[in-house]
Write the structure tokens for this entry.
Amino acid sequence: MDKEQAKRAQDQQENMDNLKARGQEDEVKGMPGLDLTSMQGTTVPSEFEFERVFGDIVMCEYIDENEYGEVYRDGIWMKQEITQKLWRRARVVLKGPDAPIGLCEGDEVALPSDKGIPMVSTNKKKYIFVNAERLFGKLKPVEK
């Protein structure tokens, strides 16, 4: 390991130690969590669309939200401020090559509402980019 790599590893460890000391550690593959407040409402330029994603990244479209930004829970539409720390429902749009084999495009999944990077497309659909290991699992309707 050269001096530059050693310095980078030391800096990353110090950053993680600082996050842990503040109770803010949130690691995925050894990387610290991101402050997503500055990324809310990020849009993709209209002349581009995603062809694929890399690694274990999964691009999902939220399916539990109405046009007013309210989230559906047990027959009730609630403001997102109330549901900020709850799980969300989304449909897998794209998945990277390192995502689990059993995960397919079109699957409905549960994921945490406070992880990942949100994006709004020009057609006003809301997407989230999240590491596959953050997904809670695939969903299916309850048979009655």
